[in-house]
Design a protein that fits this description.
There is one protein chain. By secondary structure, this protein is of the alpha+beta class. The chain is built from 19 helices and 16 strands. The strands form three sheets. Strands 5, 6, 7, 8, 11, 14 and 15 form a seven-stranded mixed sheet that branches. A hairpin with a 2-residue loop joins β12 and β13. α1 crosses α19, α4 crosses α7 and α9 packs antiparallel against α10. The longest helix is centred in the last third of the chain and has 44 residues. The radius of gyration is 32 Å and the shape is globular.
């Protein structure tokens, strides 16, 4: 029952804690930590579009002909009209506690998916309860679909069991309920047909698509009701009922879903930069790549396929400081997406150099006025041009620095300067510098910290470790063009030192001189906490299974002992 479900959810959450806890930490540091309400409810399911749950193609079935709200995939919640009917029949099953729970779950998820139209999302958002870190309420329809699938299974189980009973009382009740549902669907189809006929000229194509969208679901629910009535009169009814339900559900999902979700995708759109990326991946050194979002938007996020570190990508789950940093170069259409970067002055920003962006990919051309003295075209592969950046900074280097008390001060300084001078003077959050500084040395809320520069080389690197070799003469701020994320620890010649926030989002370390190696290790507390919870949960589950096994073994031995005593006494 509900207790078993709650236990299953708790165990699942415990086992997944190694992923859930770090993910929640990431959300808190990302742009989603303070999603504006208007953005959070953008992709809501319009109340009038709930008709899609019965007639899924009512507003069109292709991106070109779609007339509904937001993106058609984001607001799609159709789980099958036959499955929906089975879900209603599940309420006849006794005990019905689980079915009621699933219906409440489906109902709440639907209300949340409506967003501001359902009021619940708005209330939870204002209270700061969970949904304030998410957007696109319509995606909650995933929960609606899961609950609907379970309800359909319960309804099918009830029908298969009740048709085998001699009295058929429960089965006939289910069949009558199916007839009522059929009548409701027919009434809805009739009402919508009248609405379409009366809503005026000039919308013939929309009306035709809506009329067509009602034909198959209506036919399916009529066939389902007919199946239940016919199966109840046959000696082989249980067999025909089972086969018929499977065929109808499969036909329903295939006919109504496949044409919707099976959208042709051109491989060249996603991997059109394959040859160019493979060319860049073979080049020596440690560097990042910037992709032109205007001409190659689908290729923004495919760097991992070729072993490349791409400096940007379309995802709202990006660190807030990264979002602020990118916004200093050019306007963002979405976090990490800047369609004008290659064609405006932002591409010449020192902010891009400090990100260690050495190569740029585009299907167009960088305007000569922006390329002059900075970018050189080094290759063309399948129409994709590869440019190299002459002024790129390495992955790690020694730099003079301006010390600030907070990262907010760093951001305000960058807003004024737009990153000018960043290659020569890094910006570091280092309040300790103000303690020893003369008041006269504090200029624009910062203190200048000179450095003794020397060579810095990346000796080894992985996803959780970065090792650098430095000259002994290096003294001052060591800048590392890697994200400063909670859990990164710095060690100088094996001794742990303070990791400093540098250039708004990167890492840095103050060197005293005489050192040979600087190492960064990733040991986040959130991951350790998640591992601990998952291991404890796994241990408890294992102990529970062992206890059950031991109990069965003892019960079996006890039974054998009693049988032996009985045979000895002649019982």
């Amino acid at each position: 029952g509900l207790a078993a479900l709650a236990a299953a959810v708790a165990v699942g959450a415990g086992l997944a804690a190694v992923q859930l806890i770090p993910t929640y930490e990431l959300i808190g540091l990302s742009t989603r930590s303070k999603v504006p309400y208007d953005v959070a409810v953008t992709a809501s399911l319009p109340r009038w579009q709930a008709v899609n749950l019965v007639f899924p193609h009512f507003f069109g079935s292709t991106p070109e002909g779609y007339t509904g709200g937001w993106l058609m995939w984001e607001t799609y919640g159709y789980c099958g009209i036959v499955g929906g009917a089975l879900g209603v029949i599940a309420l006849l099953k006794k005990p019905r506690g689980f079915a009621v729970f699933l219906w409440v779950t489906a109902g709440l998820s639907l209300v949340l998916a409506i967003g501001p139209g359902g009021y619940l999302w708005t209330a939870l958002f204002k209270l700061g309860l969970f949904v304030n870190r998410f957007r696109d309420p319509a995606r909650v329809l995933v929960i609606f679909a899961f609950a609907s699938a379970l309800l359909a299974g319960l309804g099918a189980d009830h029908l298969v069991k009740s048709i085998r009973e001699k009295s058929l009382v429960r089965y006939r009740s289910a069949a009558r309920l199916a007839l009522v549902l059929m009548a409701l669907v027919l009434a809805l189809a009739l009402a919508l047909s009248i609405f379409l006929a009366l809503r005026g000229p000039g919308r013939e194509l929309e009306n035709r698509a809506a009329f067509k969208a009602m034909i198959i679901p209506t036919a399916l629910i009529v066939t389902f009701a007919g199946l239940l009535l016919t199966a109840g009169k046959l000696e082989t009814g249980p067999t025909w009922l089972s086969l018929g339900m499977v065929m109808l559900v499969a036909l329903d999902l295939v006919l109504m879903n496949v044409t919707w979700i099976m959208t042709p995708v051109e491989a060249d759109d996603l991997y059109g930069d394959r040859r160019a990326s493979e060319y860049v991946a073979r080049l020596p050194g440690v560097f990042r790549v910037e992709t032109d979002a205007n001409t190659m938007y689908p290729s923004l996020d495919n760097g991992a396929v070729y072993g490349l570190e791409k400096a940007s990508g379309d995802d709202s789950l990006v660190l807030d400081d990264y979002y602020l940093y990118r916004g200093l170069m050019a306007p963002q259409q979405a976090p990490g997406v800047q369609v004008g970067l290659f064609y405006e002055g932002g591409i010449r920003s020192e902010l891009l150099d400090v990100m260690n962006v050495e190569y740029l990919l585009t299907r167009g051309r960088i305007p000569p006025v922006l390329a002059r003295g900075k970018f050189d075209e080094v290759a063309v592969r399948d129409g994709v041009r590869v440019y190299s950046n002459r002024t790129v900074m390495p992955r790690a280097w020694m730099s003079d620095s301006l010390a600030f008390e907070t990262n907010r001060d760093v951001y305000e300084y960058l807003v004024k300067t737009r990153g000018d001078g960043l290659r020569e003077k890094a910006l570091v959050v280092y309040p300790r510098a103000f303690e020893a500084a003369d008041p006269a040395d504090v200029v624009e809320a910062s203190v200048l910290l000179p450095a003794v520069r020397g060579k810095v080389r990346v000796s080894s690197r992985s996803v959780h470790r970065l090792s650098l070799e430095t000259e002994r003469s290096c003294k001052g701020l060591l800048v590392v063009s890697e994200i400063d994320y909670p859990g990164w620890e710095a060690y100088v010649d094996g001794k742990k030192v303070e990791t400093l926030r540098t250039d708004l989002m990167f890492r840095g370390v103050m060197l005293k001189g005489g050192q040979r190696e600087v190492e960064f290790r990733f040991r986040p507390d959130s991951l350790l906490a998640g591992m601990l919870v998952s291991l404890v949960t796994a241990a408890l589950v294992a102990a529970w299974f062992l206890a059950l096994l031991a109990r069965k073994i003892l019960a079996r031995k006890k039974k054998v002992g009693l049988d032996t005593v009985g045979s000895d006494t002649g019982a």
